[in-house]
Amino acid sequence: MTLLRAFTTIGGLTMASRLLGFLRDILIAAALGAGMVADAFFIAFKLPNLFRRLFAEGAFNAAFVPLFAGRLEGAGPDAAHLFGRQVFAALLWLLLGLVVAMEIAMPWVMRGVVPGFLDEPEKFDLAVTLTRITFPYLLFISLVSLLGGVLNSMMRFAAAAATPILLNLCLIGALLLVAPYLPTAGHALAWGVFAAGVAQFLWLLWAAARAGFVPRAMAPAWNDDVKLLIRRVIPGAIGAGIYQVNLVVDMILASLLPEGSISYLFFADRLTQLPLGVIGVAVGTALLPMLSRQLRAGDTEGAANSQNRALEFTLLLTIPAAIALATIPEPVVAALFQRGEFGPEAARATAWALMAYAFGLPAYVLNKTLTPGFFARGDTATPMKIAGVAMLANIVFNLLLMGPFLHVGLAMATVISAWINTGLLAWILWRRGGLDLDDRLRRRLPRIAAAAIGMGAVLWGLTLPLAPWLDGGEGPRIAALSILVGAGLAAFGGLALALGAARPADLGSLTRRA
Asked: How many Å apart are CA 112 and CA 131, to the nearest integer?
């Protein structure tokens, strides 16, 4: 599969999922607003996802994909599939034990995660109940991530990239069809999360079987291959654990702020997830197995080209997205979420958080593009150490900024720590010879930035004549945002071509087989 086809396959399906996710979030905002039930559900939704990133998408997959892809390239499919089945069994039994333990200990766990809820017993009890419903999602989605890693290593990206669509469909269905029969819409959404885990697992189990990989619930085999995986997982798990501690600290501090703060941060983060998911996740997912195979085959020139083109592709799309979200955050939030229980005050508070997050968007995406350069070389320890530095920075800036800026201060601290993480990743990878910006990328970067700044000026100028629509009802707000989006795309596209930031012929270099 070519680099461009991999990017577009993952990115296109992720785009469909994110757009469906926006519909989901619009419905959630209208039904829950930014009050007690919303804050409790978002905690219940975040907690299993924190563990998922630790056990699957984080350290585990970062160590597993290069090993599985290397066996495919070297020993062949039979050896790779045997290794995959052994790892599947180990992850299954480990997660079963964790889920049972967490279900029993949930009231004590929540005391540590959201201490600010203890002053409101009803809110605390609701958070415990909803999290007990959602937590088994961790088991299913972690196995989904492992199966996705198997398929990605085989250069089959579509099935795994489509799985988030099932989550959004389940949550939308739960909100529209199940909510009237349960105590709150939060209960319906929690059961929707549980159902989504089951649906996503069955979907990828079928896709993996079609590709020839059939996992088995056998006893874990502690052979040399699994021991090597564990040795690589441990430093990565510590690094991923550091990142999860970072997120838990954010939740703890947000629970101490005025009601609604958790919801403001959630909705602002969701808006940054569209470019992050479509660009960063797509590139990172495609790049890791490609680099692993190229380096295993000794193709260092091909690996360097893949890294440079991935950086160019991500920055071409991410820089203008960041400037757009920073320039018009309130029109975006108001048009998408301001209805029902989500009023103008909540929209303004969310817009301020979105503006802060926007400045970190290039860093979030670059992290996804740079870390495969370490993981493909079997180095999971260096990103762990860098994550530790970023975590300390995040905690320090959280404590410094949350007092004067409340929830926006937490967003600002996240951005600062993300740039520290990205800067250290890039510097160390460069020092080791794994990152060498070629002439084309060096020429393009300032031109991309100039085109994005010009687009931002166009957007800012248009907000003045569109002000009556932006301050009007739901229909005018959506129409005004549509005009702004269309004008922004046209402005950036025209400026990018005029300044030489991108050329249609450049797509040819991305179609080179990796």
From this structure: 14
CA distance 79 to 358: 44
Question: CB–CB of 354/333 below 8 Å?
Answer: yes
Q: Residue written as tokens 């670059």?
A: 366
Calculate helix-pair angle for 137-153, 185-210, nearest 10 degrees. Answer: 30
d(CA 498, CA 506): 15
> Three-state SS for 145?
helix
**Amino acid symbol at 478:** I
How far is the CA of 371 from the CAs of 62, 123, 427, in angstroms?
9, 39, 12
| Distance in angstroms (rounded) separating the CA atoms of residues 222 and 364 | 36
Count other Cβ atoms within 10 Å, centred on residue 309: 23
SS3 435: coil
d(C-alpha 181, C-alpha 173), whole Å: 13
| 480 vs 484: CA distance, rounded Å | 6
Contact call for residues 360 and 417 (beta carbons, < 8 A): no
Q: Does the pLDDT of residue 511 top 50, yes or no?
A: no
Kind and range of the H or E run holding 396: helix 381-431
Helix (H, G, I), strand (E, B) or coil at 339: strand
Dihedrals φ, ψ of 380, to 5°?
-105, -5
- Report the percent of the chain where pLDDT is more than 90: 27
Is pLDDT of 119 > 70? yes
Predicted TM-score of the model (pTM): 0.69
Q: Say whether 457 sits in a helix, a strand or coil.
A: helix
Contact between 179 and 37 (Cβ < 8 Å): no
The tokens describing 83, both together, are: 């290794």
CA distances, 438 to each of 7, 69, 117, 191, 308 (Å): 20, 27, 52, 50, 7
